[in-house]
Amino acid sequence: MEEVNSSDSWDNVEIGKIGIWFFILTEIMLFGAFFSSYVMIRWGSSVCALGRTAWPQTGFKQGLILALLNTVILITSSFTMVRAYAGSGNRDESFFKKYLLATILLGILFLLIKSFEYALKIHHGYFPGSSFLETNPGLTIFFSFYFMLTGLHALHVMIGVCWNSFLFRSFKVSGFSGQLTSKLEYAGIYWHFVDIIWVFLFPLFYLI
Amino acid sequence: MEKICDKFYGIIYLVLIALTVLTVLSAQMDFARSLTILIALSIALIKSSLIALYYMHLRTEKPLIYFIVLIGIVTVFILAVGIFPDIAIGL
Questions:
Q1: Which residue ranges form the domains of chain A, and what is each CATH number?
Q2: B11 touches chain A (CB under 8 A)
Q3: Cβ contact, residue pair B83, A50, below 8 Å
Q4: Is the Cβ–Cβ distance between A196 and B51 less than 8 Å?
Q5: B85 part of contact set with chain A, CB < 8 Å
């Protein structure tokens, strides 16, 4: 009788890993639905059609520079996260602590820059309901999508920072364990996914 | 072995930064609208694939995990394709 290959069965994969990937699946659907509707809205728009940036000239360059800086920060934090995971696997305490702390700080820096960028946008009157949009009503939907999607992404970054901080504290309290390495892997998968979302948000909102 | 892995993560990081710079530079060029969109989204797709395959370790995952990710990608594809008729009507 032919032996059944069970390499792809549920039993062979950690239950926690299946859980985090199912969570990522729901996130793909959530952001995918928003991205699809955003592309459709901009494609059919006569005011901010996709292909050229929709931002008004005033303050656009500052916004682009801040968003570019945030892109580099998030990519760097993905790199530090994967290094922290490697440090955890090797039980290298100083390596692990250094890189996990760097990931947390980079996440906080991303949020600070995002807040500063929001403040700039509000200062220029680029938000739904502002007097600027009363004279440019075609851009309202673009700004609504901008604040909704970048806000939702920022919320995910906040959750990631809290999750990583919790793991850092767990390490301080009870040191390395197989469980901590697994938890760090799940947190890493989430953190990298948050990075992937930004990889799409950046060109969609600032470049095309 | 670990040193090779660390070096590899570093190379992926540099590639991601280079692709980010390339996205910004290509958007400044005076290409046709559709070409600008195609370049920006293709680079985003390459970057996200690199992050998923190497940083999220999808490359070494079991087929079950690929299957879970595939459900999400197919669903988003159906959503996007389902919207196309609306775009065509709007043109």
A1: 15-207 (1.20.120.80)
A2: no
A3: no
A4: yes
A5: no
